[in-house]
Amino acid sequence: MNKKWPECINTAVGCLFLVVLCIAGVSLHARYGYSWPSSGHAFGSDDAFISYRYAANFFNGNGLIFNPGEAVEGYSNFLYTLLMVPGFFFGYERVYFYSVAINALLLVMCCFVLKYIINKELGAIYAWIGSAMLALTPALWANAATGLESTLFLFLFLANWALLSQAKPNVTWICVVALATILCRVDGFILPLLAASCLWFDGRKKYSYQLLLFVLLVMAIYTSWRVFYYGDYIANTYHAKIAGNIFERVESGFKILYEQSLYNGVAVYALFSIAAALLSRVVFSRILFPLVYLVFSLTYFIYIGGDIYYERFLLAVFPIGIFFTLLMSSRANLMAVKLTLPLVAVLACSLVAFQGGRFAYQSKHYDMWNNLGRFLAKVEPGSLLAIDAAGKVPYYSTLPTLDMLGLNDRHIGRRVMPPQPFIVGHAKHDVDYVLSRKPVLIAAWGLPNLDLRWGLTREKYLANYEIKYLVNSLLESRGQDIVDVQGVTFSEIQNLIGVGYNYVVLARRDRLGVLPQVSEWSH
């Protein structure tokens, strides 16, 4: 009995170490880092606040909607959106921090599930090393701090892997995890289908058929609910995001994958995984699921054209890469190789912290969209806002909002676009439709010639709108971050845009007199 005490103490200390690493890393990034290198992504990603707005409406009894009276599925993370609902018991202002806390806890759970997986194959020492490597991955801290569902999906991937690693998987738990995975993301059903395929190829066909039937049943029920509730068979986000022809998307996907994977560790882990699979003496069936999912996730990333949130869809590459790195390390004969492989992997993942952008750590006190949303909360309730950043500004202003990029608008989301340069995740827009809705305010990025992005040229907006406010888009506050430029000359507005006040808010001329005032710009 006494001999077990040191072992228990060591285990407790190791577990505490993992917990502290995960919480410290996520907290560090949430406090000092960015979800994307712009002011509007200072405190969480803008897209996360789309889910928060749906959750807020649900919490308030208005249904799972973005705007009252409009049933559009503009979120892509049903389960995570529901998971955010209890956060409103802590207050409207604290939901982001609730989300970060949930994600930090999920990252801790990811470490322990990976530890279980590695321990079965390589033993306790490698299990502790692998879980620590996962906890020390900066890209995972950044993704947890976005406020998105990425860490939840990573946990569900690992849970699937852990269950499939058992000789006789628990069918009940496989189905529970499959259900959560399907509800986690619009494309979540793919993961349990891959799991069923791996079970079939591994000769465990009874489990494969049971899982496949369960997935089909859940998807039939879920799709029927979607059609009933939203009038669509799949989330509007899919229509809005998967745009452009396949050749443009693939070209963009390869380019983004190449540019990003060099710094965040994805490239090294992918190469190590493939090398280990080819060289390892482990029975192929024992590494089939992670290997299949590695290939699928990279292929899927390329197919959709990449993503603006970096490795969000590639998080599974990290635990897979850690597993295969340690597998190669354990099979090496030389101690130098055993030590070098994990060290190279950790260093490769750490390069992203020196790349700038998200990891340009500094004390944060300013978020342009957070600031603008709070300011526009002073606008008369019910005033329609059209905006190209449909997260924080609609969330904090609570104004009915027309999403100019179509995530939360059925017309724009389903629009077939004419030929144009491909922009990943931002390919759908319709300026004539936006103007036909006669919003009181239109907010979008401004260009030096005073056109706005997404085809909103001066010729189009000057008939009924004029530039009312400019917003400071730099990372740091200037003290006066929203300026009222009503009546200011175009040349003076251009000067302001040139020095960083380049987020523009247009106002309908017949409503200028009732809009909130800010300090006059002294020119």
Short overview:
The chain is mainly alpha-helical and 523 residues long. It has 22 helices and 6 strands.
Radius of gyration (Å):
25 Å
Number of strands: 6
Termini separation: 80 Å
Order of helices and strands: HHHHHHHHHHHHHHHHHEHEHHEHEEHE
Overall mean pLDDT stands at: 93
Q: Helix/strand/pairing class, anyone? A: mainly alpha
Summary tags:
523 residues, mainly alpha, 6-stranded mixed β-sheet, 22 helices, 6 strands, 5% strand
List the helices and strands and how they pair.
Layout: H1 4-32, H2 48-59, H3 78-84, H4 95-122, H5 124-135, H6 138-145, H7 150-164, H8 171-184, H9 190-201, H10 205-230, H11 236-241, H12 246-264, H13 266-279, H14 288-303, H15 317-331, H16 335-350, H17 368-376, E1 385-387, H18 392-397, E2 401-403, H19 410-413, H20 431-436, E3 441-445, H21 458-461, E4 465-471, E5 482-484, H22 490-498, E6 503-508
Parallel strand pairs: 1-2, 1-3
Antiparallel strand pairs: 3-6, 4-5, 4-6
Description:
With 523 residues, the chain is mainly α. It has helices at residues 4-32, 48-59, 78-84, 95-122, 124-135, 138-145, 150-164, 171-184, 190-201, 205-230, 236-241, 246-264, 266-279, 288-303, 317-331, 335-350, 368-376, 392-397, 410-413, 431-436, 458-461, 490-498; strands at 385-387, 401-403, 441-445, 465-471, 482-484, 503-508. It has a 6-stranded mixed β-sheet with strand order 2-1-3-6-4-5, covered by helices on one side. Helix 4 (95-122) packs antiparallel against helix 6. It is globular.
